[in-house]
Amino acid sequence: MAMSSLRQASRVLVRSRVARTLTRSATTSAFHSTPPADPTSSADASQSLAAHYFPTEPDMPRLMTSFPGPKSVEKLNSLDKVYDTQAAYMVCDYQNSVGNYICDADQNLYLDVYAQIASIPLGYNNPVLMTAAQSPEMIDAIVNRPALGTFPSTLWEQILREGILSAAPKGFDKVWTSMSGSDANECAYKAAFMYHRAKQRGKTSEFSDLERQTTMENASPGSPDLAILSFDKAFHGRLFGSLSTTRSNPIHKLDIPAFKWPKAPFPALKYPLDQYETENRAEEDRCLTALETILQEWESRISAVVVEPIQSEGGDNHATPYFFQQLRALTKLHGILLIVDEVQTGVAATGMFWAHEHWNLDTPPDLVTFSKKFQAAGYYYANDDLRPNLPFRQFNTWCGDPSKAIIAREIVKEVRAHDLVTRTRQVGGYLYEHLAELQSRFPHLMQNLRGKDRGTFIAWDATDSQTRNMLLKDMKGAGINIGGCGTHSVRMRPGMPFFSRLSQ
């Protein structure tokens, strides 16, 4: 198709179909959901939730200027003199953002189905979170910012038990908090390495003089040759250790020294999944065979495998529960830890509180990392042997942030009070159904729609990166803030209040 025709078709798709579908879905009674089993989450509860959260949320995007507006451009140019703005889409007015709508410097209101790269769980200026932010407990956490590893607060255990730990995946009862998703993954890697070396030493827990000497020279045996295995197209962060497991885009890694760690192929499935079961099983078996070969033959000891339930930055790539069940079996067979990176998939995004719950594993993973929609960051674990044998080994000044853990506690309470896991699952089903209908009408623009039965974790492919980027820009011109991933994919990441009005 000629580029001019493609551009015209893309704009028709955006302005007449996708944007209308998303806007109508977020603000009208088009969605009539089956009431969840929890009686506190009936249609009446949904109505009161919308009224309680965002009574002033608009019914449609409000566009005062074209995108980007003149004030946004002016402020970006000014900010760029003191701060790198090359990746910035717009300058935002967060005080005037509300619910599912983000406001820019020109006072344009966009329906936001990207939500700060999947990081806003309950909408902009959520009153429950704002109340928590003004509490004496929060003031204490911010003003007296504790170094949690050495000077934890008298309130710290209660904050953890009532919030982050109360939402722990099945089989987990301990947590280590961190500063970000990348930091959470790096701390999990450290835990895996220390666990592995402790197992090698056996009952001898003391470090030898040789270990102490060589580690100061970044040499073995004090600094052993160990590895973390990740998958092709994976994204696990941009810090040094996490970056060595990130494989999604060269721009993240260029010019940065990296550990020589292995990667395994991740299944390239065909969609919709239920129409290609035979082909997809063969593809997953191919990847599992390659993985086992790497686990057996890699030149250094692999201490852990890290995997995303859905590869997000790498293109929203899925695998079936079968693949992850076999992955878990292989890690146990070879005595390797399994780290599940739930930084983007966690906190109800996929219609379960944790995405790996979809897998129905016989035994849970060894560590599960989190961040983004939880606002706080860290990793869960259960095995006491994953705790270092001495202090200051898993450590930094802050060791997390109690103010963010307070917000995480309130998020957990709201998710439970309004059964937002069920709500997200229902919303995802509605969205997927209508996007599938659009794909059937515009197959030259929407391909490989994926995310069925995975809540609002939905994506599709454009024909190429240029078409995708044009679509994202045109969507903003239609009042929808949506994001991309991979080389040419479009992804949705709305917050949990999306559709909170739909049963009215």
Can you characterise this structure?
Keywords: Aminotransferase, Pyridoxal phosphate, Transferase. InterPro entries: 4NH2But_aminotransferase_euk, Aminotrans_3, Aminotrans_3_PPA_site, PyrdxlP-dep_Trfase, PyrdxlP-dep_Trfase_major, PyrdxlP-dep_Trfase_small. Belongs to the class-III pyridoxal-phosphate-dependent aminotransferase family. One of its GO terms (biological process) is gamma-aminobutyric acid catabolic process. The chain is α/β, with parallel strands linked by helices. It folds into two domains: 3-128 and 422-491, Aspartate Aminotransferase, domain 1, CATH 3.90.1150.10; 156-198 and 223-346 and 361-400, Type I PLP-dependent aspartate aminotransferase-like (Major domain) (Aspartate Aminotransferase, domain 2). The protein has helices spanning 3-27, 43-53, 70-79, 115-118, 127-133, 136-143, 156-162, 181-201, 209-215, 240-243, 277-297, 321-333, 402-417, 420-441, 465-477; strands at 101-103, 109-112, 174-178, 226-231, 263-264, 301-307, 337-341, 367-370, 377-381, 447-450, 459-461, 480-481, 483-485, 489-491. The protein has a seven-stranded mixed sheet with strand order 3-9-8-7-6-4-5. A four-stranded antiparallel sheet has the order 10-11-14-13, with helices on one face. Helix 5 (127-133) runs antiparallel to helix 13. The two termini are 43 Å apart.
